Amino acid sequence: MALFNDGPASSIEDLQAHDTQLPEVANTEAIDVTRKLELAHEEMAVELRVQLARPGGSAGLGGVGVPWLDHVVVTPPLKLWHTFRTLELVYRDAYRSQLNDRYASKRDEYHSLADWAREKLIQSGIGMTQDPVPQAQPPILEPAPGAIAGGEYYVAVAWTNSAGEEGAASRPRTITVNGRTFQARPGAAPANARGWNVYAGTGPKMLILQNTTVLRPDESWTQVNPVVSIGRTAGPGQTPSYMRPAPRTLQRG
After folding, report:
1. Whole-model pTM?
2. Which of 5, 8, 62, 101 is deepest in the core (most CB within 10 A)?
């Protein structure tokens, strides 16, 4: 699972899965859906900061550690809350533009669904990790001596911490090789990073782990052998170490 601070929990594709009319509405009413995703994320950040500052919940495993926003993991209820909150913002703007009752009905529907998802978050608690590993930046790719099958390759990287937990994989970058191979290097390492993994494939949805042992933060990776096509795929990030109780005084934005 990604960290909340990695960015908006939902994508435009997630929104469309719940509302197939979204592209048409956004185009007709000139609504920037990407910006609405960001605004919903910002509003939720304010609410979550207030919640985490409240006493009463365990600070961490064994009561150790301070639960800041960068420790929050995107669990299914939190992602749904973001999805429905974003759709509510979209239809709120659409209604303000046209005063169309159909838009008002959709706005109210997603308002209710956002409340439902928030209630599920309250019931389950806020997912937290003790040692958060942020999503990696896209790798630096360069041609290198060697010979693998020519063509375009997609490459992503992910950081690991001292416990071997892996953060969310980066967005992939592409490189085309012909009669050579490629070398990958990660960007700047977070302070708690102890290693990194490299994922590659011939398509953006087919990224498979290439290294057999975790690489050092200052180490580069050269694809000496043909790209592995079967194995562990690039993951979404860490799972919660514990669930922080969420009192029902959690406010709605």
Report:
1. 0.88
2. 8
